[in-house]
Amino acid sequence: MTRTARALGARPVALVSSAREARRAAEAGATAVVDSSSRNPDEAIAELTEGQGVDIALDPVGGPRLGELIRSVRRHGTVVSLGFTGGRQATVGIMDLLAGARVVTGYGVHGDSGEEIAEGLDDLGRLAAEGRLRPVIDSRYALDAFEAGYARPASRAAVGSLVLEL
């Protein structure tokens, strides 16, 4: 997501939970990285954004991290939940939503029409052809190792995409 955000002109800030993830996020092009294992995320985001918060936060992990992301977003900002490898349940501070007038929404490509998916893939293909977008490949799995590949994101060890080789 970091490289896609940069290709679209954003200045992505990665919120991670380990030094290993911090290195990978920096390599992927994050303009800033906040490692919550060594720094308070609320304070770090406030410092990076001069107290304003980020415009939009994308959450591919879910679970307890959602509350942190909500607090990182500026007033009237948006959090988009994209995944649940960190868990299907999250604790959200209602005052974080109300006081900041923040928006939390979910997105899954399965809800898009074929035309919408094709348009998005065309846009990504154009960015790749222009050299503005290169995927981060975490690991590759043969088809007969599908279950191991599926388990990798759930382990929270994956940073980047997984490739299933047919």
UniProtKB/TrEMBL annotation:
Any idea what this protein is called?
Answer: Zinc-binding alcohol dehydrogenase family protein
Q: Which organism is it from?
A: Streptomyces purpurascens
Q: Which UniProt keywords apply?
A: NADP, Oxidoreductase
Short name of any one Pfam family annotated for the protein: ADH_zinc_N
Q: Does the keyword Nucleotide-binding apply?
A: no
Q: Which residues form the Alcohol dehydrogenase-like C-terminal domain?
A: 4-111
The answer to whether UniProt assigns keyword NADP to this entry is yes
